[in-house]
Structure formats: C-alpha cells, structure tokens
Prior knowledge:
CATH 2.40.50.140; alpha/beta; Helicase, Ruva Protein, domain 3; six-stranded mixed sheet; Purple Acid Phosphatase, chain A, domain 2; binds zinc ion; binds 2'-deoxyadenosine-5'-monophosphate; binds fe (iii) ion; 3 domains
Amino acid sequence: MPLEVTARIVSELASRGYNAEREAVTKLAAVADPGAALERVVEDLPEDTLVVRTEHVEAALSNGDDLATGSVQPGGGQAGVDADATSSAGTTDDASPPSTSTGADPVEAGGSAARSPVETKGSTAGSGRSTDPDLRSLEIANDMTGASTGTGEYEDFVAVFRDRLERLGAKLRGRVNHRPATAIQDMPGGEEVAMVGLVNDVRSTASGHWLVELEDATGTFPWLVMKDREYADLVEELLCDEVLAMEGTLSGDSGIAFVDSMFFPDVPRTHEPSTADRHVQAALISDVHVGSQEFMHDAWNRFTDWLHTPEAQHVEYLLIAGDMVEGVGVYPNQDEELDVVDIYDQYEVFSEYLKGVPGNIEIVMIPGNHDAVRLAEPQPGFDEELRELMSAHDARIVSNPSMVTLEGVSVLMYHGVSLDEVIAELPEEKASYDEPHKAMYQLLKKRHVAPQFGGHTRLAPEEKDYLVIDEVPDIFHTGHVHKLGFGKYHNVLAMNSGCWQAQTDFQKSVNIDPDSGYAPIVDLDTLDVTVQKFS
Ligand code: D5M
Ligand code: FE
Ligand code: ZN
C-alpha cells in the first residue's frame, strides 16, 4: 500500500483532532475510496473519542454498502482525501516516503552496540503491530510525580545528601574496611585505612599531586593521590558530590592518607541485561522542541508516517526523554527564535504532532529543562492542565528521571542536563559532545544521574535522592545535548538520542552541530540498535 495514502489519512484525522491505531489506518487505506470511508468513520465516532480504532472503521465500513473494501485503485487511493490536507499544526509536509537509512550512525559512536537492519519479516501490507495487550508490559518505578515533599530548606539538602551517601555507600561498604572520617584522625600513623564518602573538594598541590577531600556523616578527611600512581588518571574524572571509597596508608601524624586504591559504586562488569521474550522494538527519542522556529516538522512527520509502515510494525513503544516543546524564557533572547510564543499553545501543537504516532504505540514521556515544570531535578511529570492538552495519546507522563520497564527490559530515562557538566569537566577523550554516550558511562559509573550540585544542574531536595541509580538499568536513555551517540558500558546500552530541532543561533555560536531528525530503534529482545534517519 502506498505510504502516501496512509500518511494522508493520518494527517487528515490529526487535523480533525483524532489519533489513530495503525490497523484502523491500514483498513481505511485498503478501501476503494478512503476519503469517503474516513468521512463515514468520523461521522459515526462517539463524541468523546480521541483515538480512531479498528472497531470504529469496521463498524463504519459494515454500515456502508458503498464503502465495500477492495484493493486500492491505481492513483485512486488518495482521491477522496483532500490532497492539500494539512494538520492543524500548520504543517506543509509533503507525503513523500521517508528517507530511511538503516545502521547509520552519524557520529560514529564507536560503541560496542551491534546494529542490525530492521527486520521486515511478515511485513505484508495488512499485517500490523501487535495490539495484544497480554504481550505488552510497561511498569514505572521511581516516578516522584505528586510525591514532592521538599521545601528547599537547608535541612532538606542535608537529608538528601545523607540519603545519597547512605545508598551509594552501601554499594561500597562491603568492598573496603571503611572507617568514619573522625575515627581515622584518631588512628595511629602508618596504618592501612579506608573511607566511604562524598567528594567535597579536589585540588592539585604545588608538586602536581592531587588532594581529594572526602566527607561523610562525621566530618571530612583529606586523601592524597600521588601523580605517578595509576589512580592519578581517575582524579580527572571526579565530580564534586559523587560517592566513592578510598583505601590507603595514613601519614605519620595521621593528618592525611596516601591513596592506594579507589572504588566507584559502578555497574558490575558481570551485569547481564534482561531482554524481551519476543521481537519487539522501542523508539528512543528526545528534544522535539515544538514551538521553536527550528523544529523540523517535515522530519517529524516522516518519522510518524514511517511508524505506520510495515517496516515499523515491531515498534510498540516510544520513549521521549524531555524537551517536548521549546518553552519560553529558557535562555536569553530565546523569544526571537520562537514560532509559537505561548507555552500552552506549544503543548497544543505538540499534541497535534503526537497524533501522528499510531494510537497503538505505548508512549512514555519525561520532562526536560525546556518543559513547563520546575527546573530543579527531580522534575515531576506534567501537571493536570498539560496532561489534558496532551490527552489524545494516552501517554504515560512520569518524572525526570524515571525507570521504565518494557517487557522486562528496564530503561532509565533522564533528560540529561548534567551531561553538559560532565562534558565540561572531564577531558575530551572521556566525555565530549561528539560522544555523549561516554559522558553517560560516567554517570553509570558514579551510579547517579546528576552528581555535581551547584553548577548547571539544579537540585530540589526531596526526602530521598531520586537521582541515585539504585538498580542497574538495561538501557540508559538521555537527550538534552542534541547529539546522537550510543554504546555499551558493562553491558548497559547507553543511548543519547538526537533531537528534532535544527541548529539554533546559540548552537551556531558555540559550534554545537546537532544530530537532528534521527530515531534510534532498539530491539528489546537483543538490545541491538538501528538508526532511522528522517532529515
Ligand atoms: O540544550 C541543547 C544543548 O545546547 C545543550 O548541550 C545545552 C546547550 N545550550 C543551548 N542553548 C544554550 C544557552 N543559551 N546557554 C547554554 N547552553 C545552551 P537545550 O536544553 O535543548 O537547550
Ligand atoms: Fe533540548
Ligand atoms: Zn534540554
């Protein structure tokens, strides 16, 4: 079946405020006069319908003798649907087939993730995405929406750092014979000691060694990393407020310890990821930025049209890791680049674009720094008003970060503001905009999505530290830096999805060359990645 017909049907339905199941669209496209059939379906829809389902189409078709199903006449497929149909989002999209390229990795991530072409097994025109709810499973953990208790008081900060130290420290305490900071000061000089703590300060000494101050619940203690020790290299990876353990030898006066080893909470090398029991895929995207003049609506429409094709039949989940809209007042002079100036209008337009996504794909979204929720992390999921605006698709709207488990495969979703900091602080080869997944490896190693407090990343103190990576995820999904990059760290797939926004003036001024219009697709049965390009 020609893609144009389905694309027109989807866009026509979207323009009338409906989202549609893939099968419903397939059925409509298969009749002799899809335009007339669409009119009939819409006429018969119950009033509060948001999603046009297969049953609706079947009912309408069985009511109308004149709409008997048949094969599409050459050239006749789109006759009934207004050829100039545009969605109310104001798109002027052509319905040309998406230019897809499989296996492309625009940044040559160099990661170890294997790539395989999208399987199109059984991709006859009529065969669709499975809608059997029994096969699907989607669970959310660590969602703090509606559970915010912090008041921003000093005591809250103390509590959240104590919780961080407690929980990440627990991952280290079995590995070293640790002592509290105050007890170490009282030990005899020359003894072997170990401590678990938060990095309070990192300084280089006049002679080129490193002084790392660790803090625990009792106080602080200084640890000296000699420049010629093998661990010296690790010092440049340290971020303030991350939790680690150090082991070494006390100086003669017990005033300092010389580091012999460092231990990070880390992901065990032996981590074995879970996989789905069937061939099913998830599209991992982020940073749509609807409302920006640079939002790439044509690429987005090609993506959502593609989701209606047999090639995409195994894509049953869509994860969006923040920055749905461009927002207002996020950066200085941002208003000069806005296409839609009102934040609520932006979500309305975003919702229109979301309607292009087949109604039987499960969507999960978290907010980002451009979204209309508090900037400080963890960010709760959108409020009722915004949910209402986006209700056409029954998307799961959860906090940033959240842990989402798809058919046994756990995906840690985090927008990624801390990546800017990791990239700024670490040497190029350990984290860069061209290899964002390597910055993600650092977060996995530190088992915290935003270790450093007080810089770019704003922290809202809650009674527990929601930013701790308690359980090792099978997939870690971030966005924010607008670069596509992925790879595996101790068998965890780290995926930084690109964006749907072309280069902004700011990005031009700082030489950020975004990867726009790519949809990385993950096979949940193998964790293999295929990149689809729509720009
Ligand atoms: O962020 C997209 C990327 O661009 C991310 O790496 C931050 C960076 N960025 C974009 N605009 C600015 C300004 N004005 N100052 C600092 N950094 C910026 P996004 O969250 O999509 O804007
Ligand atoms: Fe963004
Ligand atoms: Zn962002």
